[in-house]
């Protein structure tokens, strides 16, 4: 796989301005992702209009990739700016059956985890978390940026709660992902919101659809069927590998996807973090053997959310992903909410192109060596 390279940014508040998007396209960004975990295409119509206008101004035809909700589990709505302090206790409550504020000592414990706000009944989480409760299980919120350790399952007349210890604190935001470390807990392939978004994808100019947490061929078959029925059948389908089920089902997934996505955020929750580079290499190799293009994503330029220049490790990561055969790379928060979206786009594009240059050099040298061997054999 050489010659073609797709380079994606992610749409968000930091790059919703038409001029910023135009500058990103001028730097060489070939497509933009829209994360629909937190909203619909209709609610993001203004940002999509800016995307199309910027592309027209720059004279390019970038891809518009929508990232569906899929079976990923997420917390519910929480107070803006809520902060969980390391070492404090917190309650997890049902997202569907939110509990009222606790009283007495429980209320004091809840208040202890918040700086300047009230708790309002704990962190709302999906029912699946309660169904799979085990004492000591580690809960990872927002790709593990916040880590909790479950200690008690409390059953009461008005509902069930999980008491947990905050291992790694941070600011809690609504609708962020939640997972149990090294365990697979997921929901339905497509949500009601996914069906709504697919029904109007063509009208918004969507070119690609990304399905999260693909577990096997059945997930992709279901999404393909809905895409065709909703008028989005011409869109490419990207399969995100984010759990052990996806890793184990690569053989049946690869023939059914247009692009395989090595999504290292949740994948790094599903396997020990030190194993993640090994898993990335293994998936890359399987994609190359099958002739299926693959994308590498997550934290490629994470430091650039707050800094105008990346780390040496980050540019090496991008370079090596492309040198190893990646047909696409993508930044997420760096462009969606970071302070330097255009600079991040520039570093991503320039570094990825150097990785492609190296890959093509190796391919040329390999062909030359094969020719020499054939000549010697003759």
Task: Describe the model.
With 378 residues, this protein is an alpha/beta fold. The protein folds into two domains: 254 residues, Phosphoenolpyruvate-binding domains (TIM Barrel, Alpha-Beta Barrel), CATH 3.20.20.60; 99 residues, M1 Pyruvate Kinase, Domain 3, CATH 2.40.33.10. The protein contains 13 helices and 16 strands. The protein has an eight-stranded parallel barrel, surrounded by five helices. Strands 6-5-9-8-7-11 form a six-stranded mixed sheet. The protein has a two-stranded antiparallel sheet with strand order 4-10. A hairpin with a 4-residue loop joins β7 and β8. α1 packs across α2, α1 runs parallel beside α13 and α11 crosses α13.
Which keywords apply here?
globular; 21% strand; 378 residues; 8-stranded parallel β-barrel; M1 Pyruvate Kinase, Domain 3; TIM Barrel
Task: Tell me briefly what this model is.
About 6% of the residues have low confidence. A hairpin with a 4-residue loop joins strand 7 and strand 8.
The helix count comes to 13
Please report which band the strand proportion falls in: under 5%, 5-15%, 15-25%, 25-35%, 35-45% or over 45%.
Answer: 15-25%
Under CATH, the topology of the largest domain is which?
TIM Barrel
What is the number of domains? 2
Break the fold down into its secondary structure elements and pairings:
Layout lengths: L5 E5 L7 H10 L3 E5 L9 H14 L4 E5 L14 E3 L4 E6 L9 H9 L10 E3 L1 H5 L6 E4 L4 E11 L2 E10 L1 E3 L5 E3 L11 H8 L8 E4 L5 H13 L6 E6 L2 H5 L1 H4 L5 E5 H7 L5 H15 L3 E4 L14 H12 L4 E3 L2 H4 L4 H37 L1
Parallel strand pairs: 1-2, 1-16, 2-3, 3-12, 5-6, 12-13, 13-14, 14-15, 15-16
Antiparallel strand pairs: 4-10, 5-9, 7-8, 7-11, 8-9
């Amino acid at each position: 796989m050489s010659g073609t390279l797709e380079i994606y940014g992610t749409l968000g508040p930091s790059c919703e301005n038409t001029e910023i998007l135009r500058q990103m396209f001028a730097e060489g960004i070939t497509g933009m992702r829209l994360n629909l975990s937190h909203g619909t295409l209709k609610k993001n119509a203004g940002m999509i209009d800016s995307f199309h206008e910027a592309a027209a101004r720059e004279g390019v035809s970038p891809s518009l990739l929508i990232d569906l909700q899929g079976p990923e589990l997420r917390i519910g709505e929480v107070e803006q700016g809520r902060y969980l302090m390391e070492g404090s206790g917190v309650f997890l409550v049902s997202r569907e059956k939110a509990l009222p504020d606790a009283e007495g000592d429980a209320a004091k414990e809840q208040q202890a985890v918040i700086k300047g706000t009230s708790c309002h009944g704990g962190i709302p989480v999906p029912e699946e978390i309660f169904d799979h409760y085990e004492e000591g299980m580690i809960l990872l919120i927002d790709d593990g940026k916040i880590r909790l350790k479950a200690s008690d399952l409390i059953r009461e007349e008005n509902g069930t709660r999980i008491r947990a210890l905050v291992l790694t604190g941070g600011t809690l935001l609504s609708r962020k992902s939640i997972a149990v470390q090294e365990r697979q807990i997921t929901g339905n392939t497509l949500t009601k919101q996914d069906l709504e978004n697919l029904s109007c994808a063509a009208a918004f100019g969507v070119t690609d659809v990304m399905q999260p947490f693909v577990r096997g061929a059945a997930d992709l078959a279901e999404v393909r069927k809905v895409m065709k029925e909703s008028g989005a059948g011409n869109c490419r389908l990207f399969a995100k590998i984010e759990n052990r089920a996806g890793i184990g089902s690569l053989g049946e997934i690869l023939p059914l996807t247009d692009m395989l996505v090595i999504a290292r955020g949740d994948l790094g929750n599903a396997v020990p973090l030190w194993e993640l580079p090994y898993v990335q290499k293994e998936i890359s190799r399987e994609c190359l053997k099958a002739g299926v293009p693959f994308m590498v994503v997550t934290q490629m330029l994470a430091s650039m959310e707050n800094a105008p220049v990346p780390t040496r490790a980050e540019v090496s990561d991008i370079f090596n992903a492309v040198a190893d055969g990646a047909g696409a790379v993508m930044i997420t928060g760096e462009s969606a909410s970071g302070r330097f979206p255009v600079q991040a786009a520039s570093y991503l594009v320039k570094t990825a192109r150097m990785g492609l240059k190296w890959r093509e050099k190796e391919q040329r040298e390999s062909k030359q060596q094969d020719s020499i061997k054939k000549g010697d054999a003759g």
